[in-house]
Amino acid sequence: MRAHLGDQLVIESPATGGARRDGEIVGLHHDDGTPPYDVRWSDTDDVTLVFPGPDAHLRHLEHERSPEAGEAPPTTGEAAAATTATGPTGPTGKDNPGDTGRRVAAERRRRGLSREETAGRARMSPHYLAYLEEQPADPSLATLIRLADALGTSVAALRGGGIDLPPGQGRALLHPELRDLSPQECRTLLSTHGVGRVALSTSEGRPAVVPVNYEFVDDAIVFRTAPHSVTAAAAETEVAFEVDHVDDALSQGWSVLAVGPARVLTDPEAVRRLTQRAHTRPWAGGEREMWVSIEPTSLTGRRITPAGR
Fold first, then answer.
1. Where would I find the H helices in 14-167?
2. Coil, strand or helix: which one is 181?
3. Are strands 252-264 and 238-247 parallel, antiparallel or unpaired?
4. Among 289, 263, 296, residue whose Cα is nearest residue 274
5. Where are the beta strands (DSSP E) in the chain?
6. Residue 12 pairs with which residues in a beta bridge?
7. CA pair distance 121, 116, nearest whole angstrom
8. Which of 302, 304, 309, 307 is nearest to 186 (CA)?
9. Closest CA to 136 of 63, 27, 72, 77
10. Is the peptide bond before 227 cis (omega within 30 degrees of 0)?
């Protein structure tokens, strides 16, 4: 008997041969999937350690899909955990199952982990993790718990439950430590690119803070905008640029603040190189081909971590 996370263990009645008790396998103790198993019973929701006897068998739900060339499909047990949804949304009707896989992939990459490393931590097949990240799937709660633990985040975060809430909802650390970041640490964090905020004065003289997709090239922060947008007012003025990350699950995070003059890039060759090297187009869409560069004259940052780390 070889099982995978999400398989169903069925104990048959000796008299009728029908199901006497069943539950989901939520824990494996051997890499090859042999017993014993941690089973969450459907009738009590309790989790117990089970050494299956002769009256027990595994139930694998088949999931048909056409694998890409050279790609191994998920094993049947893992496919069972990935196909419980009956439509484009999950059981709550609020969560697109494909979004869960994209959040897992993004968090894995943000933490610098390979699929093999993440799968090992979560005690699952790398093939299943690849399937989960690339295909619409609705993993079981047990799978999400293991992934959240492997990635140092929460099940709610992987499900996107807080997408309409600002970060920082978690409780503060019992013993936090706030430390200043060196200029080199700030540059390293900026170099990850992504979304930051430009603080500027508009043409009406009012303060504004606008999120932008940015790149960090040759110690300069660059972003694309439209000539008549709010962020276009940043050109030829001194502005502030802020980027941060907050980890609600661990109640820690960092922020970097850059201050310096902004200018419009007009050299065609420089604009061409930036356009070719850009990691993403502006999320706001539309024609945003005016590149603005901020060259920091001041670069500061702070990080909150548990004391002693």
1. 76-82, 97-110, 115-122, 126-134, 141-151, 155-159
2. strand
3. antiparallel
4. 289
5. 8-12, 19-28, 37-41, 47-50, 56-59, 176-181, 194-201, 207-217, 220-225, 238-247, 252-264, 290-294, 298-306
6. 19
7. 9
8. 302
9. 63
10. no
3-state class of 128 per DSSP? helix
Could you tell me how far CA 300 lies from the centroid of its own chain?
26
d(CA 270, CA 255): 29
The pLDDT profile of the chain, 309 residues, written as one tens digit per residue, is 888 877 888 888 666 555 678 888 878 888 888 899 888 787 776 788 899 888 888 886 433 333 332 334 444 343 333 333 333 333 334 444 478 888 899 889 888 899 999 999 998 888 889 888 888 877 888 888 889 888 888 787 888 766 677 777 777 888 899 999 999 999 999 987 889 999 999 888 899 999 999 999 989 999 999 988 899 888 899 999 999 998 876 788 999 999 999 999 999 999 998 988 888 888 888 889 899 999 999 999 999 998 876
On the CB side of 240, CA atoms within 13 Å amount to 12
